[in-house]
Design a protein that fits this description.
about 20% strand; Alpha-Beta Plaits; 2 domains; 8 strands; alpha+beta; 4-stranded antiparallel sheet
């Protein structure tokens, strides 16, 4: 991991395992597709602790390699998982989530049969699924939505905002609030 290259970002200070995403090239494209994925155990049970937490981390790492994803950051909380991964353009977001949740659930239940009871002390009911149905997925790249919009507008010579990164407008030339870009 890079040290002292980014003075404002020091992952070693907080023991954060994060990689910096870079633009990658394929046979016919250049891409930087990063997904922030969050999913939870059924009923948001706080079961992802101790040895199970380590097992989940290991399985996610293995599955990312199988799916050819680059794991940029991973955090397993007691009741949810955050994964930040870089994917190829051939991957679709829902397939990534489906394969991650499905394979990890199967492997966890094979290794830890008690998980079918979701951590309840009394084994009154076996649950058919480990994860809740829903999930969150967001995309992220090097630039913001406003920067992409500005770049597209500049291609046709349209006037755009001049702005400061600190939030105060230097000069208002165009209007991003319009409904159409042309």
């Amino acid at each position: 991991m890079a040290k002292n290259i980014y003075p404002h970002f020091n992952p070693t200070k907080y023991d954060i395992q994060v990689k910096i995403s870079v633009v990658k090239t394929g046979n016919h494209c250049t891409h930087n597709l990063n997904y922030h994925i969050i999913w939870i155990p059924k009923y948001r049970r706080k079961i992802l602790v101790g040895e199970l937490r380590d097992t989940v981390k290991r399985l996610i790492g293995e599955q990312c390699k199988i799916l050819d994803l680059e794991m940029l950051a991973l955090e397993v909380m007691p009741d949810h998982i955050h994964l930040f991964a870089s994917a190829k353009p051939t991957h679709t977001s829902y397939e990534i989530v489906k394969k991650l949740k499905g394979s990890i659930s199967r492997q966890l239940r094979k290794e830890k049969p008690d998980l079918k009871f979701l951590g309840y002390q009394r084994h009154y009911k076996a649950f058919p699924a480990l994860w809740a149905r829903g999930y969150y997925i967001g995309s992220a790249g090097h630039v913001s939505q406003e920067a992409v919009k500005r770049y597209i507008m500049e291609q046709q010579g349209k006037d755009v905002f001049e702005y400061s990164i600190y939030g105060n407008l230097k000069q208002k030339i165009g209007n991003f609030e319009q409904g159409r870009l042309f």
